[in-house]
Design goal:
The chain has 2 helices and no strands. It starts with a helix and ends with a helix. Helix 1 packs antiparallel against helix 2. The chain has one domain. The longest helix has about 160 residues. It is about 95% helix and about 0% strand. By secondary structure, the protein is an all-alpha fold.
């Protein structure tokens, strides 16, 4: 019976020690795996933190670039608008100056024409007064002729050498002189009127040419203004196209970088999750080893407790077998 108890105790001790040793190895392996997984998880977390910083830097840089691009676009648009406004103001000033000059010249020509028309009226007045005086003189001469004719008729046929004949001849010469003077004066007055009318016609022609020149000048300025507006619109359209092209390229590059960072961030997140699972498994293995290590002494204690009972059980069975055999 003592041998049986010893054998049971030895077997329990062997099993307990083996279980403890296996538990120690499992715990060490689990702790090592958990440490490695935790280190890998920390590395992945550090990478995620770095990527998060890169994302924040990318967001800030994109915001700065977008603001700079918008500011550059706005400054360019403002400069173009200011230059256009200055050029348009210069053209407007030229048009105003041309209009003022043409109006001043037209006013001067109109004033000259008014002066010439006044001269015509003065000349007509002079002609009227001269005609009136000639008519009065003609009345006096007609009266003298009538008296001379009566004198000639009174002297009879032999008065051809008298003063009556001389008076008649004087009246004829005087009348001829008056008529010639009137013709000459009327001719001079007519020439003066025609000359003044010619001046008026020249002024009217000059005024017409002045208006035509003004029309040409205004048409040229309007053409320049239209070309200026077309150039301004083209420049504005080009600037807008460049702005949106650069903005689209910048947004595309930003989106690509952001997608790459998000993919890397998600990849490291997967690694963190994987390592978390590895940590849990390693911790489970370590706990299992710890439980085995704790179970070893309990097995040994159970063997010590079970040895006497087993010896009595196995011992009685042996005695009965020997008695039977003897019988």
């Amino acid at each position: 019976m003592a041998a049986i108890s010893t054998a049971i105790m030895a077997g329990a001790a062997l099993v307990g020690v083996g279980t403890s040793l296996y538990g120690v190895s499992q715990k060490q392996a689990g702790d090592k795996a958990a440490a490695a997984a935790a280190q890998a998880q920390a590395a992945a977390s550090a990478q995620q933190t770095q990527i998060a910083g890169q994302q924040a830097q990318l967001e800030a840089q994109n915001a700065i670039s977008a603001s700079q691009l918008q500011a550059s676009y706005a400054i360019g648009q403002a400069g173009t608008s200011a230059a256009f406004a200055q050029q348009e103001a210069a053209l407007t000033a030229q048009a105003s100056a041309a209009t003022y000059a043409a109006s001043a010249e037209s006013a001067r020509l109109n004033q000259e024409n008014i002066g010439y028309q006044q001269q015509i009226e003065d000349t007509r007045r002079t002609a009227m007064e001269l005609t009136g005086r000639r008519d009065q003189m003609e009345q006096f001469r007609q009266a003298q002729r009538a008296r001379s004719q009566s004198l000639v008729a009174a002297t009879g046929a032999g008065a051809q050498f008298g003063s009556g004949l001389q008076g008649a001849r004087g009246q004829i010469s005087g009348q001829s002189g008056v008529n010639l003077l009137g013709i000459r004066q009327n001719l001079e007055l007519g020439r003066s009127i025609f000359d003044i009318n010619a001046y008026i016609s020249q002024n009217q022609i000059a005024a017409s040419q002045n208006q035509l020149q003004l029309a040409y000048t205004q048409a040229g300025l309007q053409t320049q203004e239209a070309q200026l507006k077309a150039g301004y619109a083209t420049q504005q359209a080009g600037a807008t196209t460049d702005y949106y092209t650069q903005a689209a390229a910048q947004t595309s590059a930003y989106s690509a970088q952001r997608a790459a960072l998000q993919a890397a961030y998600a990849g490291y997140g997967g690694q963190i999750s994987t390592q978390q699972g590895n940590i849990a498994a390693a911790q489970g293995q370590s706990s299992f080893g710890q439980s085995l290590f704790a179970a070893g002494p309990q097995i040994m204690q159970a063997g010590n407790l079970f040895a006497p009972l087993g010896a009595s059980l196995f011992g009685s069975s042996t005695s009965q077998a020997s008695s039977t055999s003897i019988v």
